[in-house]
């Protein structure tokens, strides 16, 4: 029983908490407010992180393929232009090609960094599961001084793995990019009347977007804001709350949540969500990643 524990401790110490972080070229710790000294460590969610990682990698590869296709097209035009000796146009194409090449290199580095972070996350996840299994095995055996000391050490390593996983989650969030939300309006058919006023609150974790709109006499809609940038979050979903404003009174129309897993793509995504249970009022947004 002690031999596997020794192996676990040796493997754990050979990785080292400091080595997990030193291998990552991270931004200032201020970027990770949840990871400051004395902060409460949340519970890692490996399945959710896996879903986001797969969606993020797929989206980044889509961008990479699109820019690679653009580079191939520009390179083909450059060859034709060179034969025709149109030097001014040739140099302009060369400048465009160099710009696309630089962007492709940035994308490739971005993908490799995301893969590196996720690989480190999976290692810590497996170590954490190993510590949990060993704790369970020791709890079933007779209690001795050696087993109690091993349990204390296992608990310490479990906590360290948990902290490292949370740190890597924070580092991974930095690479998720931005969501640009555009307000497209409410859809309600007979439920929307000229003069009606509504307030929409879009929330993602601590980020909020509060905007007010009015139904005009020609059935068009005016909103005091039309676009907002959100920073993606590994664990939070979009929460959308719509309220009807009636003078000094307010009437809650509905509250819905929306997962962001499908937004990591090159194309703008149209979102139409049912605000009421029967779908008599819908909210339409557009998300560009």
From TrEMBL:
Residue spans crossing the bilayer: none
Similarity field: Belongs to the RIPOR family.
Annotated gene: Ripor3
Highest taxon listed in the record's lineage: Eukaryota
InterPro entries: FAM65_N, RIPOR3
Protein name: RIPR3 protein
Residues covered by the FAM65 N-terminal domain: 12-289
The organism of origin for this protein: Nycticryphes semicollaris
Signal peptide extent: none
């Amino acid at each position: 029983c002690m031999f596997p524990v020794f192996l676990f401790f040796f493997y754990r110490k050979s990785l080292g908490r400091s080595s997990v972080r030193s291998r990552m070229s991270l931004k200032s710790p201020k970027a990770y407010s949840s990871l400051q000294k004395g902060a409460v460590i949340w519970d890692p969610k490996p399945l959710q992180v896996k879903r986001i990682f797969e969606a993020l990698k797929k989206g980044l590869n889509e961008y990479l393929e699109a820019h690679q296709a653009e580079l191939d097209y520009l390179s083909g035009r450059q060859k034709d232009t060179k034969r025709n000796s149109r030097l001014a146009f040739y140099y302009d194409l060369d400048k465009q090609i160099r710009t696309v090449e630089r962007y492709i290199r940035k994308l490739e580095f971005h993908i490799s960094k995301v893969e590196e972070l996720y690989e480190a996350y999976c290692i810590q996840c497996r170590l954490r599961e190993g510590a949990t299994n060993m704790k369970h095995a020791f709890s079933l055996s007779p209690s001795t001084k050696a087993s109690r000391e091993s349990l204390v050490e296992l608990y310490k390593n479990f906590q360290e793995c948990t902290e490292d996983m949370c740190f890597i989650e924070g580092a991974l969030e930095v690479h998720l990019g931005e969501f640009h939300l555009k307000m497209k309006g409410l859809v309600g058919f007979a439920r929307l009347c000229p003069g009606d006023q509504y307030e929409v609150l879009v929330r993602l974790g601590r980020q909020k977007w509060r905007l007010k709109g009015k139904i005009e006499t020609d059935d068009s809609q005016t909103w005091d804001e039309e676009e907002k940038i959100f920073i993606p979050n590994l664990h939070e979903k979009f929460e959308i709350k719509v309220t009807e404003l009636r003078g000094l009174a307010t009437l809650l129309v509905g509250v819905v949540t929306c997962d962001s897993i499908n937004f990591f793509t090159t194309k703008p995504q149209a979102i139409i969500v049912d605000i009421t249970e029967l779908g008599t009022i819908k909210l339409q947004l557009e998300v560009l990643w």
